[in-house]
Design goal:
By secondary structure, this protein is of the alpha/beta class. The protein has a domain at 3-256 and 465-478: Amidase signature (AS) domain (Amidase signature (AS) enzymes, Alpha-Beta Complex), CATH 3.90.1300. 38% of the residues lie in helices and 13% in strands. It contains 15 helices and eleven strands. The protein has an eleven-stranded mixed sheet with strand order 1-3-2-4-6-5-10-11-9-7-8, sandwiched between helices. A hairpin with a 2-residue loop joins strand 10 (440-448) and strand 11 (451-458). It is globular.
Length: 487
């Protein structure tokens, strides 16, 4: 393999070459930086590229490798969604209100990756403060889908997804609040893993919806997702919501057959409205699972129709609270003098926040206001409990649940930008797992009109290894990850 194409490697493939000294971390990093320079002007996945710092980190990784040190991500270049704090670097959340903000410390996941010897190449684009499903809400312009530059890469982790799909890096970090890792993974032919809520520390993540936010990897393969999760998962004293459970050796537990496994086929996800091409791909996956010894059982998740409405009451409500700090006094854009404090706030927030952020703040503030709190927010919490109970009941019958990830392949840039409701409905298959705090993974399932589409596997809390094991078995059959976007 030529040095120029090292960026096309999987983490697992690069790991073997690094450990046998056939390539260096510096070679790998330079290949990724060259690729960023060559193609990122087309896709606009990166908001920040840290070339000199990345090269220095690569040199340090090579010293550790030369000393005989081993590690799953030692010497592996990656990109991080620009909503994760990175010490000494701009962290904008793709918002004008944080255009000049320099993070004073690293998020826990960044700190863990740094300790593991992974090499941070830079920061990726996103929907502003992660509010969106297309990466068109970024204050710095949209990211484009590498498979078709006229289409969106998904969101809100669209920059991370486009970067991995374009081989700008070997993996990227995204965040998933209601599908923001899984949906772009589906649109870009990637593996996107949303771990269980609390499996990965949120410390240093700019909060969107604190009760559903999860950090996870976007990777080329399931094995790569396992390697990243091993490093970033675990308890954290700085995040009270992290789980105390020990971290499994995910990559060593991937292999295993599916004989006797019971997989749920929820009838509410497979209605007559489901695109016939997506249904065909799902039926193909279903047959493969049966061939490998799994049993497919039809189940019911009766409150599925309410997942999107519930999500879009709870999420704006928490956004209204979490973004209140960005007022130009303690945080964010400061446009200077104003006649009074109220005018000062309006001036800074009015110019600093984009339209979708303002929309969600207003929706959330309304839902939390006196006279409406009980009718909207409190009712949404009650229905959320019913959704959680639906999944709990289903997992008494089955081990995993199989669903589509998205209702269609990537849509055109600008196609839904003026239709917030259509954009919110993009989350129809992914919000249930988020509201319930469950691990879920999107796996490439095939192509429709040359555009990628994914399937979703949902498991009980902390069943990441089972979810990845089934995905790994399916991946071996189709090898869709070997197909590359033609840039």
């Amino acid at each position: 393999m030529s040095l120029d194409s090292l960026n096309t490697l999987t983490i697992k493939g690069a790991r073997g070459l690094l450990d046998t000294k056939k390539i260096s971390a510096l070679d790998l990093t330079r290949a990724c930086l060259r690729r960023i320079e060559e193609v990122d002007q087309k896709i606009k996945a990166c908001l920040l590229v840290c070339e000199s710092a990345a090269l220095e980190e690569a040199r340090q990784a090579d010293k550790r490798l030369a000393a005989g040190e081993k590690g799953p991500l030692l010497g592996i270049p990656y990109l991080a969604k620009d909503i994760l704090l990175t010490k000494g670097l701009n962290t904008t959340a793709a918002s004008k209100i944080l255009e000049d903000y320099i993070a004073p410390y690293d998020a826990t996941v960044i700190e863990k990756l740094k300790a593991a010897g992974a090499i941070l190449l830079g920061k990726t684009n996103l929907d502003e403060f992660a509010h969106g499903a297309s990466t068109e809400n970024s204050a710095y312009g949209p990211t484009k889908n590498p498979w078709d530059l006229s289409r969106v890469p998904g969101g809100s982790s669209g920059g991370s997804a486009a970067a991995v799909a374009s081989d700008l890096c070997l993996f990227a970090l995204g965040t998933d609040t209601g599908g923001s890792i899984r949906q772009p993974a589906s649109f870009c032919n990637l593996v996107g893993l949303k771990p269980s809520y609390g499996r990965v520390s949120r410390f240093g993540l700019m909060a969107m919806t604190s009760s559903t936010d999860v950090i996870g990897p976007l990777t080329k393969t399931v094995a790569d997702a396992a390697l990243v999760l091993e490093v970033i998962a675990g308890d954290d004293d700085l995040d009270a919501t992290t789980l105390k459970n020990s971290v499994e050796n995910y990559s060593e537990l991937l292999e295993g057959d599916m004989k006797g496994l019971k997989i749920g086929w929820p009838k509410e996800y497979f209605t007559k409205d489901l695109d016939k091409n997506i249904l065909a791909l799902m039926l193909s996956a279903k047959e493969e699972l049966i061939k490998q010894g799994a049993e497919i059982i039809e189940i019911s998740l009766p409150n599925t129709p309410y997942t999107v409405p519930v999500y879009y009451i709870i999420t704006p409500s928490e956004i209204s609270s979490n973004l209140a700090r960005f007022d130009g006094v303690g945080w964010g854009l400061n446009h200077g003098q104003a006649e009074d404090l109220q005018s000062f706030y309006k001036q800074n927030r009015g110019q600093g926040f984009g339209p979708e952020v303002k929309r969600r703040i207003m929706l959330g503030t309304y839902a939390l206001s006196a006279g409406y709190f009980e009718a909207y927010y409190k009712k949404a919490l009650a229905v959320r409990t019913l959704i959680i109970n639906d999944f709990a009941a289903a997992f008494k019958q089955v081990d995993l649940i199989l669903t589509p990830t998205t209702p269609h392949p990537a849509f055109k840039l600008g196609e839904q930008v003026d239709d917030p409701l259509a954009m919110y409905l993009e989350d129809i298959y992914v919000t249930g797992a988020s509201l319930s705090g469950l691990p879920a993974l999107s796996l490439p399932a095939g192509f429709i009109n040359k555009l990628p589409i994914g399937l979703q596997l949902i498991g009980p809390k902390l069943s990441e290894i089972l979810v990845m094991r089934v995905a790994n078995n399916l991946e071996k059959i189709n090898n869709y990850y070997k197909l590359k976007a033609n840039l």
